[in-house]
Amino acid sequence: MSGGQWDYENYRILDVCRHVSEDEKIIQRFPILSSEIMKLGLVLDKILHDLDWDLSGDTCIKNDEEFENAALAQLKT
Question: How far apart are CA 65 and CA 2, in angstroms?
């Protein structure tokens, strides 16, 4: 069952990142940080979604080490 592992928390994380990154005060004072917060939210959303689907049995991560390395690389960009 999709979302079964963490009850769709990835959407909440993405919503918080979007909310913060679109705040006018943040955009004015910290425009680069605003953009990076949104990027981070999108990356976390995808990683958590893929993990959730794997753990819930909807899909299967075929190579854990490869997935982990790719996820870490995405987080570092």
Answer: 22
pTM of the model: 0.87
CB-CB contact of 41 with 21 (8 Å): yes
**In 10 A of CB 14, how many CB atoms?**
20
Q: How many CB atoms lie under 10 A from the CB of residue 64?
A: 9
∠ at Cα 47 (18, 29), nearest 5°?
Answer: 30
Query: What's the sign of the alpha-carbon dihedral 35, 37, 32, 20?
Result: positive
The answer to whether 76 and 28 have CB atoms below 8 angstroms apart is no
DSSP state of 8: T
Q: Are residues 2 and 58 in contact, defined by beta-carbon separation less than 8 angstroms?
A: yes
- Are 74 and 39 spatial neighbours (Cβ–Cβ below 8 Å)? no
Q: What is the mean pLDDT of residues 43-72?
A: 93
> Domain-by-domain residue ranges, the chain?
9-76
